[in-house]
What does this fold into?
Amino acid sequence: MTVKARQHSKVILLGMLLVLQGCSAFKASHFVPESAENMREWEVEGRFALRADSTVSKSYFSFRQIGEEYALSILMDEPVGEPRAIIHGNVYEPGSETLDVIGGAEAMKVAEHLQAHIRAGNLSYWLRGLPATADAVVYQEDLDRVDRIEEAGWDIDYKEYMAVQNYLLPSEVKLKGEPGSFTLDMVRAETAYLTSPCGQNVSASALESPPENNAVQDAVRQLVPSDGSPPIPRWVDEAAFCRQLVKVHGKIPDSRVGLYGPDSMMWKLSRAGMPGAFGAGRALLLQLAHPWVTASIDEHSVVRDDPLGRARRTFQHVGTMVFGSMPQVMTSANQVRDIHEEIEGEVPMDSGAFKRGSEYRANEVAAMIWVHATLWETLAYMYEKMEGELTLAEKDQFYEETKLFAMLFGVPEQALPKDWNAFMAYNRAMWASPQLTVAENGIRLKEDLFDPRSIWMIFPLWVQEQVTAANLPPRIRDEFEMKYGWWQKFNNAWIMGGAKVTQWMLPKSLERNPLYHEANARLEGERVGGYNQFLIEALLDKERLVN
It folds into this structure.
């Protein structure tokens, strides 16, 4: 393929992205940050250069604070790895700083040079855009960000900021004073869940009990009773949710890598952008075929008023759990849990196995397993259609990895089908089960889903509807009243053919999920490149996924 052809394909894809977003990425952000003073555990990392005494000290660094205690780690020449020197201290005890040297004379020289000119405890405040003392002079034009601080003989200039979770933190800080100059360039930050994967409302005793039943069970039969009745409800309370997060946290050796990592099947399947995009409609309609899911979305979601916004939020949380660091994963898990806690009600009409008035809650094991299944079965299904077949060993590995994802919602591992074959047996049983019954509210939600509402969305939603109709199980497609005759088959054939040609034309750097690129940048201690940052902003209306 010629360079010109590749450039042309990039233009086409970029145009598609803009159309899909209805140019919403260019709207003003409504982000209102929380005060950085509220941060109780946090970490930033990046590069620094200290010029003083006619010498220049350069290094990669990380600054971590838990409560009052802080640690400034100096990594020397590599952005990721074991620190060569660590300065420990307490923000309320200025004279308590200690220096531990791990990596030899050069690291000690840099650390001592740094200590001689800047107290690391002050960085606890300055790195957050805050003054360290009441004697500081603060300059700011906007309420949510400081422009400059004069303090302790330094003129501290804040050049850039970055949004990290609920906070707005400095990303470029320059200090000038009599000792010299100090420049800090922050690459990434963590602002929560560094020490515990869940909230503070669960006691240690609640985490230890009750013991789970580890006996081998026929999960498929429990989830899809042969008599057509619904499964016995199992509500996941906060303690049960936290127990699963603790288990997940204990399975992950490296918090920077996150839940999966480069060698995982989850990253392999999720990094390809098109299978997930083309399967989105299928996964959602399979979810909407479940009366509990339909009722909860119909009564509690803003999907009708803001379908793009809801899609973004879902994509953000799923993307964070798949590609984020462990603190980011746990932040999303807890946020989703808080949202689900508010979702409960009664089924408004008789719907297959579920009677009118039966209680539903978002945090119910069987319902969460079904939503979980629609996501990952659809991803594997569309991946094989668009990227190539997977071996049974690859499918088994992928499915084992998805169990960690389910546990982030409080689902016990023992409640899930054992392996890929059992997982597919569960999906096929559900497709035939009266648990999946499309009622009137499901039909309305389907119509809303494919309603373009603007000229920009007519073609992309038409494409999504054709592909969705072609790939739904026939019974579910019929209950949603979706046509699938020769015309729809013809449209699906040329759409899928065109998608495969586009995949072949695009370089992997462009075809792959931008969140995958951000995750790889994190593992290398770097910031994601400008092009992928633009795509993330277009998809999520955020500067970065989390960093």
User: Anything to note?
Assistant: The radius of gyration is 26 Å. Residues 234-512 form one domain. The longest helix spans residues 365-386.
